[in-house]
Amino acid sequence: MKNVVIYSTPSCHFCNLAKDFFTANNIVYTEYDVATDVEKRKEMIEKSGQMGVPVIIIENEITVGFDKPKLAKMLGFI
């Protein structure tokens, strides 16, 4: 099982799509709400250089946004 982390906000449509994708594929993930967790927001920006969400880290590979084919590839589905 790969280590999956998502930095998100409650109102982010693409964050919800990513989490739904993980759930539908039985992917266990750790979620950080950067709307309320200032330390995790700083961590997300330091790691990705981005302020937009979702920031998704699978193992040590970072992607920003919800790109289903890219996530499938990062997870080893394709």
TrEMBL record:
Superkingdom, according to UniProt? Bacteria
The record's annotation in PROSITE patterns points to: GLUTAREDOXIN_2
Pfam families noted in UniProt: Glutaredoxin
Which BP terms does GO give this entry?
cell redox homeostasis
Specify the Glutaredoxin domain's residue ranges: 4-61
Please give one Gene Ontology molecular function term for this protein. Answer: electron transfer activity
List the protein's name: Glutaredoxin-like protein, YruB-family
In its UniProt entry, the species of origin is given as Candidatus Nomurabacteria bacterium GW2011_GWF1_31_48
